[in-house]
Design goal:
Length: about 210
Amino acid sequence: MSSLAEEIDALLPQTQCTRCGYPACLPYAQAIARGEADINQCPPGGTQTIAALADFLGMERKPLDPVFGVHRPRTLALINEHECIGCTLCLQACPVDAILGATKQMHTVIAEECTGCELCVSPCPVDCIEMVPFARGDSRDGWPWPEYSREQAERARRRTKARLERLQRRPVAADARAAARYPSRAQMRREIAAAVARERARKARRLQNRQT
C-alpha cells in the first residue's frame, strides 16, 4: 500500500523545479505528510494542485503562497545549438535527464521529457538556453492539470527516481575518469571561461559583420 507521502506525490505535476523549497516533488510531498509544509507551495501546479491536495487531505483550499512564486504557463527549454559550448552544466542541472550531450559537444533538449523546471537556464555560461511555450497536456480522466498530462507526470517521476539511483551508484571508475579529465575545479572553470570567451568573440565578430 502506498504511503501518505506517495499518494500526495501522485497529486503533484512532477516538474521537480524546487520552487516549493524542496529539492524535488517527493521531498515536498513527504514534508506535507509530516505537517512541515503547506499545500500551497507549488507554483507550476497552481490552484489545481492546491485544490487536489486540499480535497485529498480534507483541508481548506487557499491561494498560492507568493513567497514561492507565481503560476506561469508551462514552458520548454530550448538550447541554441549554434551557441552551445558543450560545458555539460545544464546536463548536471536537469532533474529528469531531459538533455543529451557530452563534454565539448552540442547539447539538445528531449522536448517530450522536459518538465519546464528552468533549472538548466541559470548554470549556462553563454546564455544559450531559453524557455519557450509548450503545448498543453491531456486533462481527461479526472486529471486536474491541463498543462501536465498524467503520462508526462508519471514519466517525470520515473526519470527523476532513475537519475537519483544512478547518481547514488555512480562507479568509482567514472569518478576517476572525471578526475583525470579535470584534475581540479580550477581547471574546469578555466576551460569553461575559455570557451565562453571564444563564444563571445564569435558573437562580437558576427555583430560587427552585420554592421559593416
